[in-house]
């Protein structure tokens, strides 16, 4: 069975890829930590790693079904990327950079462009997104790369740097100022360009992602064939902002995959390392680090996966939701990495030893997650700029909100097949935010369920944390709605970060309501929800520790995942709740 079996459910497909890539702790194999770290020292990828992925068919999931590939929806690619990222983030970023480069083609390309790029990717070619310039970084309003009309094509002059896959990529989506129409996106095929009119820069030496092609490309009057424009002439900046909504969401998979590996590495060490006559997991502070890391991973999953589903359920919401994911999930990932580092102590600093010394690589690689596709500050600015509109309607349930929320949060349902269309993505959310607006009805429903189905102590704990969050949340949105918020201020950044926590809390609650209908009364079936909400409450500045009376069943699931086939995930929690 290979990745060619595209009709399988997304989780089954991800499980097959996980099996093919093998045990990361294996002493040999291109996706084992031992070979990964060994070749990392040489700024190289393990031999055979990319070939193994291509033989399985990973490239098919960069090409939508509508254009001859296997990509059904973004959730599917999220799950596959999570599997890959828990082994080697560098390889994941290589394919992620290719996805970024070709998404404009899927959204706005003509039939010939889509067919040529799809065929190339399926044959093993890569792509890149040439937007950044050395002197301008994320200032996309400044674009010194110029395309001058020349016959039925253009002459392209300018420099793009740094760019993922700039050297290895065949296809290049370039952001250029087209004379007479303004900044636009152009699709280039290197095989069609005149030799000597362009060249690539050497790979940039980076702290992490060693072996990744992060380089650049310079054009010197390069003749570009006609028919290369993507989307509306002059609409390049808007197109970039729309394309980034997709990849910002997908980056969450890099963080969740990294969280899985660092938690697994630290937890295994804590169970095997003996000090003071006992395994160090029994030391309260060590246990606390690991429990917190596990809860943060569950929060990240609850937040990211539904937004991945939204590309084919409610794509107009991505202008806000993708920035929430891009800020919050890598931030949680950084904290999980830090918690794991505290458990490993000195061994976390070594390039050998525990798990072949992979922790230091994971730590260095994951640092990129908060930087590319818009830094933390860029994404918080995006959230802040839309927050006043959202706050005005935060207490008004959205029309058809229950339908949208079930489509997003019911894990038993496959997300619809994505039909790529640039018209479906918007630059602002226009208050269409079922996740924010559904909180109060969801809390009312949760209270009813608690009173009818749950033991008194558990019902009381759930009701208490929901009430605490409701009070904080209500006051927050009332203040935003009543005031003015300048998205460029530090105050606005703080407000945006707080909104992301309320978004996450709502996402956790909806996951419980829609995906745990059959498991709520099991020992871990509601305990996990109370614990993650308490964790979020503590992040909101409230002195809250996990409820020890509810921790045991969730902790048992975490420990069982250490040597079992399941990732640390809510699927593992649900599986543990079902009768054997």
Automatic annotation (TrEMBL):
Residue ranges of domain Acyl-CoA oxidase/dehydrogenase middle in the record: 128-220
A cellular component annotation (GO) from this entry: plasma membrane
Known cofactor(s): FAD
Domain Acyl-CoA dehydrogenase/oxidase N-terminal: 38-125
Domain of life per record: Bacteria
Protein name: Alkylation response protein AidB-like acyl-CoA dehydrogenase
Keywords of this entry: FAD, Flavoprotein, Oxidoreductase
Keyword Flavoprotein appears in the UniProt entry: yes
Span of domain Acyl-CoA dehydrogenase/oxidase C-terminal: 234-386
GO molecular function: acyl-CoA dehydrogenase activity; flavin adenine dinucleotide binding
Recorded family membership: Belongs to the acyl-CoA dehydrogenase family.
């Amino acid at each position: 069975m290979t990745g060619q079996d595209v009709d399988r459910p997304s989780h089954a497909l991800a499980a097959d890829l996980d099996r093919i890539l093998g045990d990361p702790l294996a002493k040999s194999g291109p996706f084992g930590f031992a070979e990964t770290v060994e070749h990392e020292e040489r700024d190289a990828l393990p031999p055979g790693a990319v070939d193994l992925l291509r033989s399985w068919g990973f490239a098919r999931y960069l090409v939508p079904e509508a254009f001859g590939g296997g990509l059904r929806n973004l959730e599917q690619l999220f799950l596959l990327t999570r599997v890959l990222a828990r082994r080697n983030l560098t390889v994941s970023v290589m394919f992620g950079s290719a996805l970024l480069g070709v998404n404009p083609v899927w959204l706005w390309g003509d039939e010939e462009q889509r067919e040529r790029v799809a065929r190339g990717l399926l044959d093993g070619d890569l792509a890149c997104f040439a937007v950044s310039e050395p002197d301008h970084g994320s200032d996309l309003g400044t674009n010194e790369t110029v395309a001058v009309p020349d016959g039925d094509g253009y002459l392209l002059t300018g420099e793009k740097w740094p760019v993922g896959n700039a050297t290895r990529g065949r296809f290049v989506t370039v952001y250029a100022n087209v004379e007479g129409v303004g900044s636009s996106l152009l699709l280039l095929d290197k095989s069609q360009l005149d030799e000597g009119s362009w060249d690539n820069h050497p790979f940039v030496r980076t702290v992490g992602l060693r072996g990744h092609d992060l380089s650049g490309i310079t054009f010197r009057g390069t003749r570009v064939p006609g028919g290369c424009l993507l989307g509306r002439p002059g609409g390049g900046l808007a197109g970039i902002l729309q394309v980034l909504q997709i990849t910002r969401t997908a980056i969450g998979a890099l963080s969740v995959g990294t969280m899985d590996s660092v938690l697994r590495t630290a937890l295994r060490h804590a169970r095997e390392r003996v000090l003071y006559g006992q395994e160090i997991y029994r030391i309260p502070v060590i246990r606390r680090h690991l429990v917190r890391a596990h809860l943060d991973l569950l929060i990240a999953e609850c937040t990211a996966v539904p937004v991945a589903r939204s590309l084919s359920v409610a794509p107009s919401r991505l202008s806000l939701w993708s920035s929430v994911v891009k800020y919050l999930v890598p931030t949680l990932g950084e904290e999980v990495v830090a918690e794991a580092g505290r458990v490993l102590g000195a061994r976390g600093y070594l390039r050998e030893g525990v798990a072949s010394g992979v922790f230091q690589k994971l730590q260095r690689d994951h640092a990129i997650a908060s930087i590319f596709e818009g830094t933390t500050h860029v994404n918080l600015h995006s959230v802040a700029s839309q927050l006043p509109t959202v706050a005005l309607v935060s207490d008004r349930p959205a029309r058809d909100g229950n339908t949208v929320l079930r489509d997003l949060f019911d894990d038993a349902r496959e997300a619809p097949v994505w039909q790529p269309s640039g018209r479906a993505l918007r630059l602002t959310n226009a208050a269409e935010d079922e996740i924010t607006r559904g909180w109060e009805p969801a809390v009312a429903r949760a209270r009813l369920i608690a009173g009818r189905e749950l033991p008194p102590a558990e019902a009381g704990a759930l009701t208490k944390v929901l009430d605490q969050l409701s009070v904080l949340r209500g006051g927050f949105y009332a203040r935003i709605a009543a005031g003015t918020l300048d998205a460029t201020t530090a105050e606005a950044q703080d407000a945006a970060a707080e909104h992301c926590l309320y978004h996450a809390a709502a996402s956790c609650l909806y996951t419980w309501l829609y995906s745990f209908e059959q498991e709520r009364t099991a020992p871990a079936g509601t305990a996990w929800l109370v614990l993650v909400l308490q964790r979020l409450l503590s992040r909101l500045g409230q002195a809250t520790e996990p409820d020890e009376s509810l921790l045991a069943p969730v902790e048992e699931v975490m420990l069982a995942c250490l040597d079992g086939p399941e990732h640390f995930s809510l699927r593992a929690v649900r599986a543990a709740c079902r009768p054997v």
